[in-house]
Amino acid sequence: MANTSESTMFDWRDDPTDCDADAITAALAPITADYDLAFGARRVHTATYLDTVDGRLGSRGLVLTHERGTADNLALLSREQVLTAVLPEQPHWPARIEQLHESPLRDALADAMWIRAVGPIAHGRTVSRVVAVLNSDAKTVVRIHWTEVHIDGHDDTAVARLEIKPLLGYQHDANNVADALRAAESFDVADRDFVDTLIAVTAQPTAQPPPPMTADTPAAAAVATALHGFADAIAANVAGVVDDVDTEFLHDLRVAVRRTRSMLKLAGDVLPDGLKERVEPDFRLLGDLTTPTRDLDVYLLDLPTLGDHLLVGEPTDLVPFGEHLRRQRELELRKLVRVLRSKRFTDFLATWRESLTAVTAVTVTVTAEATESSTPTAGALASQRIMKTYKKVVRLAKAITPDSHHDEVHSLRKRCKELRYLLEVFGPVCEPEAHKATVKDLKKLQDLLGDFQDGEMQSAGLRVFATQMLESREPTVAAPPAATLLAMGELSAHFARQQASARAALTDQLDRFLGSKARHRIEAMLP
Predict the structure, then answer these.
(1) How far apart are CA 376 and CA 436, in angstroms?
(2) What is the mean pLDDT of residues 150-164?
(3) Are the C-beta atoms of residues 319 and 276 closer than 8 Å to each other?
(4) Which among 334, 252, 292 is positioned nearest to 468, based on CA atoms?
(5) Does 467 score more than 50 pLDDT?
(6) How many H-runs (helices) and E-runs (strands) does the chain carry?
(7) Model-level pTM?
(8) Which stretches make up the CHAD domain (predicted)?
(9) Range 221-234 average pLDDT
(10) Residues 6+ apart with CB under 8 A from 35
(11) 418 within 8 A of 444, measured Cβ to Cβ
């Protein structure tokens, strides 16, 4: 007899059996002529399926479940293993990685979760049963593990999976069982891992994408559609910011606001009825309002590794600094949340989205009735605005020298961001290969410009924070120790060196972006 055994997976395609013995017996009729069946206990458990809002676990082939019972249990399923953890107390969702109970399961989740929080995405009920397959001698030769998962709201997509597992030395019988089921109409050999099947069933539904932009799309419709997408992103992240779920909600909201402001500035003139001018002040205010909290988030996210840059001080010297950052963030977040919860903001965002929908609908109707030459197109707008913005970038970049004031470098960074947003919005009407190469070069330039600004802003910010800590009048807050202020001074010097390093590397990247090859690529890219 062989000393190795292989299991086989099948999917059951008919109505769920709910692991009823009679229903399973009927389903396994193809093998009951040669084998008898004996049923183990029917097991039922309910679980909550968890993931980040952007599906980071599912995209990495991971399924995280929380099961309530006599004790709270977490289980992490991957294609390679299953990890479980018994929780000392009921968790509160959503939760970031540091809010989960310390365990090997948490360690396995850390990279996939990153700084995002996991929360419920689905609730499910799992029913399972082990069926022993007996030969003519009444000896168990094979075990069939029958599992059915029912996801709330997905009754029509219940997952039923069978695993045929031979006992040692009875691979021949397992092959017989597998062959019989393979020939039956209601069974399919599983073509993907059970984890992948669960991910497909529990995945959050994605929004219907807008109609694809073409070179002939009316310019106003193209701009309004892009702005509507940014508005949807703002709306989708408001609750996460208000509830302080994780810092990426504010980051994503802020990016959507910044993209909106850039698109209004660069192409908002194609919108009708002075719409651009009416909303620009509100988006400028919203952008300014999100800045303090986001800046503090950046410091707090970097705080665990800031101590690595200290040569004289110790990481523990930065503890009072971290406490100060958290107090300041609480104050700034409170101001931001007050605005985001206000009726004025809610009404403004709803009206803005309705206005953009109306622009798209009217533009499409007008275009259907107008001559081709009378309606500006997305292709024409893309060519004009991308080239215009590129020329601004080139003009600013050519003026940069090693002695240029930092304000000139920051102006270049802003223009580069605007060019990047135009390339993102009008990418569908650009030549793909040239577009990809242009974005790649621009991103490298932006990374250097970002390092330059981060170095300056963080160095200056540390000086501001040190002053705040020294001048604090809060009776419950002790004056900062000298060691903390000295450590902050060290960090300020580190960021100043980062700025200088980025500045030195900037010239080479500018030459690459300003060369004739880059210009020809831009021209070849445009519709």
Answers:
(1) 26
(2) 83
(3) no
(4) 292
(5) yes
(6) 16, 10
(7) 0.89
(8) 216-519
(9) 97
(10) 133, 134, 135, 141, 142, 173, 177
(11) no
